[in-house]
C-alpha cells in the first residue's frame, strides 16, 4: 500500500507541476515525463498489485476555488480490501467504496463501479 501511495503522489505532483508550468493541464502521460525525471511513469501509474491507475486528463485544477472543491483526477481502478487510493493532484487519500461512490469527479467523467 505504501508503494501505491508513493506512486500516486509522484503522478499527482507531475500533473500539478505540468499544469503550473504550461498554463494548461496535461493531455497524456508523455506530458508528465519532464516533471518526473528518472522515473518510469509506465510503472508508477500502477497500484502495488500492478493494476493501472485511472487518470482523468485535461482537468485544470486552477479553476476550482478551494481545495475542498477539487475533483478526484487519479484513482485506483479497483478497490483493495474495501478502499481505494485517490488524488486531486494535491493530496493522496484513501476512500471507502461508499465514499468513492459519493466523491466528486470532473464534469463528464463517471468512474466505473
Short description:
This protein is an alpha+beta fold. The chain is 31% helix and 14% strand.
Describe this structure in words.
There is one protein chain. By secondary structure, this protein is of the alpha+beta class. It has one domain. The chain has four helices and four strands, in the order αααββββα. It has a four-stranded antiparallel beta sheet. A hairpin with a 4-residue loop joins β3 and β4. The longest helix is centred in the first third of the chain and has 21 residues. The relative contact order is 0.19.
Topology:
Layout: H1 2-22, H2 29-32, H3 41-44, E1 53-55, E2 74-76, E3 83-87, E4 92-96, H4 97-102
Antiparallel strand pairs: 1-2, 2-3, 3-4
Provide tags for this entry.
113 residues; alpha+beta; four-stranded antiparallel β-sheet; globular
Number of helices: 4
Strand content: 5-15%
Terminal CA distance: 21 Å
Unreliable segments of 5+ consecutive residues: none
- What's the number of domains? 1
Succession of helices and strands: HHHEEEEH
* Helical/strand content category: alpha+beta
- Helicity range of the residues? 25-40%
Q: Averaged pLDDT, please?
A: 91
User: What is the overall silhouette?
Assistant: globular
Biggest sheet overview: 4 strands, antiparallel
